[in-house]
Amino acid sequence: MKNTSAATDMHEFKNHDLVDDFGKPGIRYEKRPAHMPDGKVAEGLYNAWIWLDNPGQFNSYTTDMVKGVILAMRAASNARDVNCVVFTGVGDKAFCTGGNTKEYAEYYAGHPQEYRQYMRLFNDM
Description:
The radius of gyration is 17 Å and the shape is elongated. Strands 1-2-3 form a three-stranded mixed β-sheet, covered by helices on one side. It has one domain: Alpha-Beta Complex (2-enoyl-CoA Hydratase, Chain A, domain 1), CATH 3.90.226.10. Strand 2 (about 40-50), helix 1 (about 65-80) and strand 3 (about 80-90) form a beta-alpha-beta unit. By secondary structure, the chain is an alpha+beta fold. It has helices at about 65-80, 100-110, 110-125, and strands spanning about 25-35, 40-50, 80-90. The chain contains three helices and three strands. Mean pLDDT is about 85; it is low at about 1-10.
Protein backbone atom coordinates (compact mmCIF):
# COMPACT_ATOMS: atom_id res chain seq x y z
CA MET A 1 0.00 0.00 0.00
CA LYS A 2 1.43 3.37 -1.00
CA ASN A 3 1.09 6.67 0.78
CA THR A 4 -0.67 8.95 -1.72
CA SER A 5 -0.34 12.21 0.19
CA ALA A 6 1.10 14.95 -2.03
CA ALA A 7 2.84 16.43 1.01
CA THR A 8 5.17 13.43 1.47
CA ASP A 9 7.68 11.51 -0.64
CA MET A 10 5.46 8.46 -1.29
CA HIS A 11 6.89 6.12 1.38
CA GLU A 12 5.64 2.61 1.95
CA PHE A 13 3.60 2.19 5.11
CA LYS A 14 5.48 0.50 7.95
CA ASN A 15 4.77 -3.13 8.79
CA HIS A 16 3.61 -3.26 12.42
CA ASP A 17 3.23 -7.06 12.63
CA LEU A 18 5.42 -8.97 15.07
CA VAL A 19 7.21 -12.04 13.76
CA ASP A 20 9.30 -14.46 15.79
CA ASP A 21 12.61 -12.92 14.72
CA PHE A 22 14.11 -10.50 17.22
CA GLY A 23 17.23 -10.14 15.07
CA LYS A 24 15.96 -6.84 13.71
CA PRO A 25 18.41 -4.24 12.46
CA GLY A 26 19.48 -2.15 15.42
CA ILE A 27 18.89 -4.84 18.08
CA ARG A 28 21.40 -7.34 19.44
CA TYR A 29 20.52 -10.21 21.79
CA GLU A 30 22.94 -12.50 23.55
CA LYS A 31 22.80 -14.92 26.48
CA ARG A 32 25.88 -14.76 28.71
CA PRO A 33 26.69 -17.05 31.64
CA ALA A 34 25.52 -15.75 35.02
CA HIS A 35 28.07 -15.54 37.84
CA MET A 36 27.84 -16.15 41.57
CA PRO A 37 28.90 -13.39 44.03
CA ASP A 38 32.30 -15.11 44.29
CA GLY A 39 32.81 -14.79 40.51
CA LYS A 40 32.25 -18.45 39.66
CA VAL A 41 29.92 -19.31 36.79
CA ALA A 42 26.41 -20.30 37.92
CA GLU A 43 25.97 -23.47 35.88
CA GLY A 44 22.85 -23.45 33.73
CA LEU A 45 21.94 -19.80 34.41
CA TYR A 46 22.31 -16.93 31.98
CA ASN A 47 21.87 -13.18 31.73
CA ALA A 48 20.16 -11.99 28.55
CA TRP A 49 21.83 -8.90 27.07
CA ILE A 50 19.74 -6.72 24.76
CA TRP A 51 21.47 -3.82 23.01
CA LEU A 52 20.03 -0.91 21.08
CA ASP A 53 22.54 -0.75 18.22
CA ASN A 54 22.08 2.54 16.40
CA PRO A 55 24.94 4.66 17.80
CA GLY A 56 25.11 6.88 14.71
CA GLN A 57 21.70 8.25 15.75
CA PHE A 58 22.34 8.00 19.51
CA ASN A 59 20.40 4.71 19.65
CA SER A 60 17.11 6.33 18.71
CA TYR A 61 14.70 3.47 18.06
CA THR A 62 12.94 2.76 14.78
CA THR A 63 9.75 0.75 14.35
CA ASP A 64 11.81 -2.36 13.56
CA MET A 65 13.91 -1.79 16.68
CA VAL A 66 10.77 -1.52 18.85
CA LYS A 67 9.59 -4.85 17.43
CA GLY A 68 13.03 -6.34 18.05
CA VAL A 69 13.05 -5.20 21.70
CA ILE A 70 9.58 -6.66 22.29
CA LEU A 71 10.59 -10.01 20.83
CA ALA A 72 13.95 -10.10 22.62
CA MET A 73 12.26 -9.35 25.97
CA ARG A 74 9.73 -12.11 25.27
CA ALA A 75 12.52 -14.56 24.42
CA ALA A 76 14.34 -13.70 27.65
CA SER A 77 11.12 -13.97 29.68
CA ASN A 78 10.30 -17.37 28.21
CA ALA A 79 13.80 -18.82 28.66
CA ARG A 80 13.85 -20.82 31.89
CA ASP A 81 17.62 -20.47 32.12
CA VAL A 82 17.63 -16.64 32.02
CA ASN A 83 17.61 -14.97 35.44
CA CYS A 84 18.31 -11.36 34.44
CA VAL A 85 17.99 -8.98 31.49
CA VAL A 86 20.56 -6.27 30.84
CA PHE A 87 19.06 -3.63 28.51
CA THR A 88 21.70 -1.24 27.22
CA GLY A 89 22.90 0.74 24.23
CA VAL A 90 25.93 0.53 21.94
CA GLY A 91 28.40 3.41 21.97
CA ASP A 92 29.66 5.88 24.52
CA LYS A 93 27.50 8.94 23.75
CA ALA A 94 23.96 7.92 24.75
CA PHE A 95 21.90 4.98 25.97
CA CYS A 96 18.90 6.11 23.90
CA THR A 97 17.51 9.45 22.78
CA GLY A 98 13.99 8.13 22.21
CA GLY A 99 12.08 7.53 19.00
CA ASN A 100 13.68 8.12 15.63
CA THR A 101 12.24 11.49 14.63
CA LYS A 102 13.31 11.07 11.00
CA GLU A 103 11.19 7.94 10.74
CA TYR A 104 8.30 9.64 12.55
CA ALA A 105 8.34 12.53 10.07
CA GLU A 106 8.60 10.26 7.02
CA TYR A 107 6.06 7.60 7.92
CA TYR A 108 3.71 8.86 10.60
CA ALA A 109 3.18 12.61 10.11
CA GLY A 110 -0.37 13.06 8.85
CA HIS A 111 -1.20 9.35 9.25
CA PRO A 112 -2.89 8.94 12.63
CA GLN A 113 -3.95 5.31 12.03
CA GLU A 114 -0.37 4.31 11.24
CA TYR A 115 0.86 6.20 14.29
CA ARG A 116 -1.76 4.46 16.45
CA GLN A 117 -0.40 1.08 15.32
CA TYR A 118 3.11 2.24 16.16
CA MET A 119 2.00 3.39 19.64
CA ARG A 120 0.46 -0.02 20.30
CA LEU A 121 3.87 -1.54 19.62
CA PHE A 122 5.60 1.10 21.72
CA ASN A 123 3.29 0.42 24.68
CA ASP A 124 4.17 -3.29 24.45
CA MET A 125 7.83 -2.38 24.80
